[in-house]
Specification:
By secondary structure, this protein is of the alpha/beta class. Helices cover 38% and strands 17% of the residues.
Length: 343
């Protein structure tokens, strides 16, 4: 059965152009000339996708999108904004209102058809039953800045995805200026902010999956918010809820953690099945690692959960491994030399 699409625009000519383009692809198309008319129509029928203009009388496309996102029956419908406004500010405003994609007029018919196809395929995939799996959560952590935590977390997620041919999730919990999405050259279309604006009881697996940024490697990234003050919206309850949902859908969930013991960091560590404690071979890092291990013991984390990973992040000589052994009985899980090591 062909998908039913609702097109909202106050221009009869544009309605005809969009309708004709979509009907040639086999879609059933409904039209409305205002936001109010669209809402009334949605009270009587179901659609699979909505395309809306921005500039319309009484209610613009931003306001319509916001209303749709607050209605239970349309909160997760894919929405494409089709408008003449092509400024970055207008696009950002559209995404903040809740649209899934943005296309400017005049449009190429083929591009509109492809964007609609992608949005509908994504919606079908999100709605499909998901087989829950007992995934592992691997936290990468250090109390010392510059230890290479983000690099190791990103490389680990990519390696797991490519080694086993299974999607892996990379969750950026360095909520202030995190770098996970940047390291994979992903645009911040969706971030933790999208989830933090929702009460935890409203966040389900489908919603969590929709905010992940897919990468060609098979890694799906939950990015940190684009602005530092938005990090305050993310609570420990958000972190616990989202990680529980992702663990059921991914064989591996890798956490890129900040260099602190904040509530959100502790929420991530509490869920971890394994903790990789990153240790560059310098005295400051040894002291920070010893402090972290003492904190882990106080928190009741099992010794078998914790694995030391030595990361050689500088050219100068560092402490030999034998000189770092006395401060901890934790085993070294491996070495990630950025520069050649002396042994």
């Amino acid at each position: 059965m062909a998908a039913r699409i609702l097109v909202v625009d106050d221009s009869p000519m544009m309605l005809k152009l969009v309708r004709d383009t979509l009907e040639r692809s086999g879609y059933e198309v409904l039209t409305a000339t205002s936001g109010k008319e669209a809402l009334n129509l949605l009270d009587r029928t179901q659609v699979g996708l909505i395309i809306t203009d921005v500039m319309m009388p009484e209610m613009d496309g931003y306001a319509l999108t916001q209303l749709l996102r607050h209605r239970p029956d349309t909160s997760r419908l894919p929405i494409l904004m089709l408008t003449t406004q092509d400024s970055l500010e207008a696009k950002v405003k559209g995404f903040q209102a809740g649209v899934d994609d943005y296309l400017t007029k005049p449009f190429e018919p083929t591009e509109l058809q492809m964007r609609v196809q992608v949005l509908l395929r994504r919606a079908r995939s999100a709605a499909a039953p998901v087989e829950e799996i007992p995934g592992k959560i691997i936290a990468v952590f250090s109390l010392r800045g510059g230890a290479g935590v983000s690099t190791i977390a990103t490389n680990l997620a990519m390696a797991l995805a490519q080694l086993w041919g299974l999607p892996a999730a990379l969750v950026d919990l360095a909520l202030v200026a995190g770098q996970s999405a940047l390291m994979l050259n992903l645009s911040l279309h969706h971030t933790w902010k999208d989830l933090a604006e929702k009460p935890t009881e409203e966040i389900d697996g489908e919603m969590a999956m929709q905010v992940l940024l897919p990468h060609a490697s098979g890694v799906h990234v939950l990015a940190s918010p684009p602005l530092p003050h938005q990090a305050e919206l993310v609570t420990a309850e958000h972190v616990k809820q989202v990680l529980d949902l992702l663990q059921r859908r991914f064989h591996y969930v890798v956490l890129d953690l900040p260099h602190d013991f904040s509530e959100t960091t502790l929420a991530g560590l509490d869920t971890a099945t394994d903790i990789l404690l990153v240790l560059p071979p310098d005295l400051g890092s040894v002291r920070a690692t010893a402090a972290a291990l003492e904190a882990f013991q106080a928190l009741g984390y099992a010794e078998e959960q914790i694995h030391l990973v030595q990361n050689w992040v500088f050219k100068r000589p560092g402490l030999p491994r034998k000189e770092m052994r006395p401060f901890s009985n934790a085993p070294f899980a491996g070495c990630c030399p950025t520069w050649p090591t002396p042994w």
